[in-house]
């Protein structure tokens, strides 16, 4: 069973960044208003997420480590209809199978919290503990019991960049939540709650303030909001294009093409514009590939969504003096 657990875990947890994503999404699901991410060696020796969310009772804490014990869906179509990010009920179980995990959690209404110390799925310690309201999960020595996987991890710089990507996506999707990222005792990000434009500036820098063109459009099918970078601020490198559907980050070459078409004739050669765009759509009009690491979706009426994105983006760019 522990081998089966380890194999299943490999599907969900591929690198420190996937662990970070799962833990931080759980904090969002728990209605946290403050989420702190602490890393040592790009998450290879320690990755810890501390939140002030609703916490778990002792029973729930034990249950949270059981595979599928908490699964919220029966079918793939349920994804994106849920109001929570999590749906498979296997992230914590998977993480526990491939690391040394310490979980501390306390719901507001309880005086004492619960401490669980787990090693490769075995619960080594369980006891009441005095702790803040919310949940703290430390994942130590990821893949310590799967040397092949551990050796396969990339350099710290590379793994850290993947973590930052996940961190930025979640921070952009939830500007009302405070986020901190601390890597080996250095505060790398300290993001206060605010509007999306403020969040963008806190993540990417002051120079973005003047570079944002607001984008807003609503049709019977979709609602679009967000910001497009003004053309002359486009960068030589890709990587600052963010598209969210119902608050989940997705990759879509098709919709990226719609955005890029709005910039046609405006961009300096070989540059890529910044954008952060949110699409809200009734989940019954989308189809999702539920593989845990995929961020791809299909729309019933792809062309209609494309048309809205293109026209909204064109309008945003035209409405501002470029
Ligand atoms: P899923 O998110 O798909 O339900 P997870 O394995 O990620 O599965 O988490 C299992 C369960 O543990 C969650 O459904 C939730 O009830 C609980 N849980 C996990 N993390 C937290 C947290 N930070 N705060 C409160 N509850 C949590
Ligand atoms: Mg989850």
From TrEMBL:
GO terms for molecular function: endonuclease activity. Residues 200-318 form the DNA mismatch repair protein S5 domain. Keywords: DNA damage, DNA repair, Endonuclease, Hydrolase, Nuclease. This protein is involved in the repair of mismatches in DNA. It is required for dam-dependent methyl-directed DNA mismatch repair. May act as a 'molecular matchmaker', a protein that promotes the formation of a stable complex between two or more DNA-binding proteins in an ATP-dependent manner without itself being part of a final effector complex. Belongs to the DNA mismatch repair MutL/HexB family. This is DNA mismatch repair protein MutL. The chain holds residues 10 to 331 of 601 of the full protein.
């Amino acid at each position: 069973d522990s081998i089966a657990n380890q194999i299943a875990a490999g599907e969900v947890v591929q690198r420190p960044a996937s662990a970070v994503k799962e833990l931080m999404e759980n904090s969002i699901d728990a209605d946290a208003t403050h989420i702190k991410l602490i890393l040592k060696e790009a998450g290879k020796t320690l990755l810890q997420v501390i939140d002030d969310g609703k916490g778990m009772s002792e029973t729930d804490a034990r249950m949270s480590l059981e595979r599928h014990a908490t699964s919220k869906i029966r079918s793939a179509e349920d994804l994106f209809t849920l109001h929570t990010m999590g749906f498979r009920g296997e992230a914590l179980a998977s993480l526990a199978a491939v690391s040394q995990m310490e979980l501390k959690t306390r719901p507001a209404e309880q005086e004492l919290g619960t401490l669980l110390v787990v090693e490769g799925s075995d619960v080594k310690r369980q006891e009441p503990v005095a702790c803040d309201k919310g949940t703290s999960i430390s994942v130590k020595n990821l893949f310590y019991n799967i040397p092949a996987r551990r050796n396969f991890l990339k350099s710290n710089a590379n793994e850290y960049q993947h973590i930052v990507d996940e961190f930025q996506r979640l921070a952009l999707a939830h500007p009302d939540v405070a986020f901190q990222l601390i890597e080996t005792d250095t505060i790398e990000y300290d993001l206060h709650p605010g509007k999306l434009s403020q969040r963008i500036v806190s993540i990417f820098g002051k120079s973005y303030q003047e570079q944002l063109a607001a984008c807003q459009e609503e049709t019977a099918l979709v609602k679009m909001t967000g910001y497009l970078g003004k053309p002359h601020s486009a960068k030589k490198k890709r990587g600052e294009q963010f598209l969210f559907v119902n608050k989940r980050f997705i990759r879509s070459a098709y919709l990226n093409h719609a955005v890029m078409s709005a910039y046609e004739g405006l961009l300096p050669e070989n540059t890529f514009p910044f954008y952060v765009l949110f699409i809200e759509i009734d989940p019954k009009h989308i189809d999702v590939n539920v593989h845990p690491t995929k961020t791809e979706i299909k729309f019933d009426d792809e062309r209609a969504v494309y048309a809205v994105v293109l026209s909204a983006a064109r309008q945003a760019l035209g409405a501002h003096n470029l």
